[in-house]
Every structure is written in C-alpha cells, then in structure tokens.
Amino acid sequence: MQQFHEDHRTKFYSVLTTLYIDFGFGFGSINPICAEFHRVTNVNLKNRFFAQLDQHTPRLQSLFRKKASRTGKASELLDQLFKIYDLQVEQSDEPDINDVPLGLLLSNQTSSDACFFCPERIAVLIEDNIVIESSTLADAFIILFALTYILHLNYPKQLHNTFDFVQKVLMGLEDGKLRPRVMSLKNDLLAVL
User: Fold this and answer.
1) Does the pTM exceed 0.85?
2) Residue 133: what are its φ and ψ, rounded to 5°?
3) Domain locations along the chain
4) Rounded mean pLDDT of the chain?
5) Could you tell me the CA-to-CA distances from 24 to 10, 36, 42, 124, 151 in Å, in that order?
6) Does 22 score more than 90 pLDDT?
7) Closest Cα to residue 185, out of 94, 56, 87?
8) So where does this one cross the membrane (predicted)?
9) How far is residue 156's CA from residue 123's CA, in Å, rounded to a whole number?
10) From the centroid of its chain, how far is CA 175?
11) What whole-number distance in Å separates Cα of residue 65 and Cα of residue 126?
C-alpha cells in the first residue's frame, strides 16, 4: 500500500512539473490543469462544469428544500453549518493541514464575521500540501475535482457521492454504474415536474 501511495505522489508532482514547464504557467494558474483535463477526457472542464451547474442549480435547490422540509433536517444542517463556522473562527492563523488527503482551505486575514463566507484565500490541498490557490470557491472545487480525476486519486469516503455525482452526472464521464444515492439524485434531477 505504501508503494502505491508513493507512486501516486511521484506521478502527482511529475504531472505538475510537466504542466509548469511545458505550458509555461506558474503553479498558481488553472490553465495547465484545464489543459491536462481536456487532454485526458476531451472535455472542456470549466465550460462543461459551469454549464451543467447553471442548468441544474434551480432543480437542485428545489430538491434540497423539499427533502429538508420533508425530513425535518433543515435545522440540523444549519446547526451543523454554524458549528463548523464556530470551530473555524476559533482556529489559529496557520491551520493544521496534516492528514488531509484532499480538501479546500478557506481563510481570511481578518476575522470579521461578514467576510467569513467570502474568503480572501482559497487553497486546494492534496496530500497535506497546498497545491494551488484560487480566487473563487467554484474554481477551487473544479481544480480539486480535475486533479483528483487526472491523477487517479481516490475520492474521500465522506465525499465519494459528491465527487461521483460531479464526475458521472455533471461532467458525463464514465457513465458506468452509479451508487444508489447518486442514481436517486440523478433521477430526481432529471424528472419532469
């Protein structure tokens, strides 16, 4: 297992270095990642993602509201969101990113409550390292998704359904078998009202 992990880490840094040298972009640029994703999948990453998101957002919001009201979990979700917010406000200046296989780091230099949900810094984390910074949360997410896909990294267990939905439903990649929850969401999303 350790050898498998090291092979992916070597491949990861090799791809980033190749993108940096071949395309002439700094590590802070999304362009080489989009180019590599297009080379691997023949899909324009940003265009497809944002087009699908624009198309499905109203229905996704409707489904979320309906499910939250039906199950009574809306208050639980808000409570969970505020608990996460409280924990993040209390953190130190330098967050601990050890043992983070994949993630997004949102931070502000100021601790103003009003600007917490509009972070000044959004970083993509892979294997305990900040790989790239982005100006928007949406760009950071698609960078994380693209790097995970092109480097064949495993999706985090807690987010497997989310990444599976993005990969197979939104991006239309590998239309193979869907997990039951993802299939249910796809059916609900595409159902005619």
Assistant:
1) no
2) -110, 150
3) 2-190
4) 76
5) 21, 13, 21, 20, 20
6) no
7) 56
8) 12-30
9) 17
10) 20
11) 32
